[in-house]
Amino acid sequence: MIRSVMCMTALVSLAACGSGTNPFATGTDTDGSGGASVVPETLAGNLKSINYNATAKTLTAEIYALDSTPIQVVYNRDAARDIGSYEAYSIQEDGLDRFFVAMVGESHDGSVQAGFVGDGGQFNRVLQGGYYTRVGSFDAPNISTGPAAGQVSYGPVTV
User: Fold this and answer.
1) 125-141: per-residue pLDDT in tens?
2) Hey, what's the signal peptide range on this chain (predicted)?
3) DSSP β-bridge partners for residue 52
4) Could you please report the per-residue DSSP string of 91-153?
5) Does the pLDDT at position 63 exceed 50?
6) Which of 17, 25, 64, 121 is paired with 154 by a 20 to 30 Å CA distance?
7) More confident residue, 31 or 155
């Protein structure tokens, strides 16, 4: 379980570098390149919509093929499953239904959210998906030229 959680966390982190329109947000998030950001279908998977409020500690999600009523499911906070700065939420309507875990996180300034939702698999079918959002555009730092400038500096160190 932990291995798949870590793999999905890595996948979500890498996929957050993408661009296009975001199907999970009603706003006009952009990736800083002038276009709206898109969660690729391969990352979104079975996740159809998600609403995470980091301040209120609430999560609602709709995942394809989850037979629940209502379709938008409110997940329960599950702090025992937290990993690092990612908060865990879970849902299982009864002992005969699938157990879903969601791991979501938000940047310190609230400008970026990312996470995933998934089950452990049942009847040879796994339901899962990831998402990311960003509020505002990315402002790259000013980097000058020369051996003592840039993101990697090989110039002299002054103490």
Assistant:
1) 888 899 988 887 777 76
2) 1-18
3) 59
4) E-SSTTSPPEEEEEEE-TTSSEEEEEEEE--BTTB--EEEEEEESS---PPP---STT-SSS-
5) yes
6) 17
7) 155
Residues facing residue 86 across a β-bridge: 83
Indicate the burial class of 11 (C-beta count within 10 angstroms; 0-12, 13-18, 19 or more). middle
With H, G, I as helix, E, B as strand and everything else as coil, classify residue 17.
Answer: coil
Residues 22 and 44: beta-carbon distance below 8 Å: no
- In DSSP terms, 128 is beta-bridged to 118
Task: Please report the pLDDT score of residue 119 as a whole number.
Answer: 86
Strand pairing category for 112-119 and 100-106: antiparallel
Determine how β-strand 73-77 pairs with β-strand 87-91: antiparallel
Q: Which residues, in sequence order, are bridge partners of residue 116?
A: 103, 130
